[in-house]
Amino acid sequence: MDLNTVVELRDARLRETWRPGDAWLGGGTYLFSEPQPHIRRLVDLSRMGWDPVRVTPQGDLEIAATCTIAQLSRFARGARWSAAPLFEQCCRAFLASWKIWNMATVGGNLCNGLPAGPMISLTAALDGVCRLQAQDGSLRETPVADFILGAGVKDLRPGDLLRSITVPARALAARTAFRQASLYGLGRSGALLVGTRDQGTGEFVLTVTASTVRPFRFRFPLSPNAQALEEAVAYGIRAKEYFDDIHGLPAWRRHMTFRFAEEIRRELCEEDGR
Hints:
The protein is α+β, with helices and mostly antiparallel strands. It is 28% helix and 24% strand. It has 9 helices and 14 strands. It has helices spanning 69-77, 84-92, 98-101, 106-112, 118-125, 144-147, 169-172, 226-236, 250-269, and strands spanning 8-11, 22-25, 41-44, 53-55, 61-64, 129-133, 139-143, 148-150, 153-154, 161-167, 175-181, 191-197, 204-209, 216-220. The strands form 4 sheets. It has a 5-stranded antiparallel beta sheet. The chain has a 4-stranded antiparallel beta sheet with strand order 11-12-13-14, sandwiched between helices. A 3-stranded parallel beta sheet has the order 1-3-2, with no helix packed on it. Strand 13 (204-209) and strand 14 (216-220) form a beta hairpin.
């Protein structure tokens, strides 16, 4: 898609004053997929020189906003964390071509804020925290689950830049379970649920995405039984918070949410005999 309203391309390293009509350019797979009549200037992040993904001295995983899906997938394949398989599962949930994998960025997927964004699913489920930089240089942090406010709605102020997402070491050590459904073979996710189980404390967390307009998380200090989990999901997600588009009706998304929630509970809590 030619963006014929764009009149200027600027290097993000110049740190120029933000103005109406500006947009950050990461991989561009969304920006160039459809008309963007409101955009006049693109601010290119590709030369910022950020490490795509690294393990901090504390053992946390820091993912740069400009890290591509391909880079994240390659990095996680060699990892020994218990949660490592979840990275590939969520990367594969894109069902995208190798061209998209090598251009689309983790930060772009989060900043689009679409319910089916699998990088939202991945980082929200692993207690990821967004690091945001304002135009005055100040930094703030917010959990991924709170960063996404609704379908396409994010906690971003004008000119805010998503710098990175940090996944804590304890989350990387958790056992995980993944469930995803689409209406057709190569379709967009209609429901994507992730369960995690802390191997030290036994805490169980269910993260619901794709079927809902924003991520929902249900945390249990100990393994819940089927009724407790069902009630938590039933009362925690209102009918209007199930997403409705051509990729799935709310009733179907709700049905798959309850089905996958119970499957995940059984998979991660089976040693409790429940």
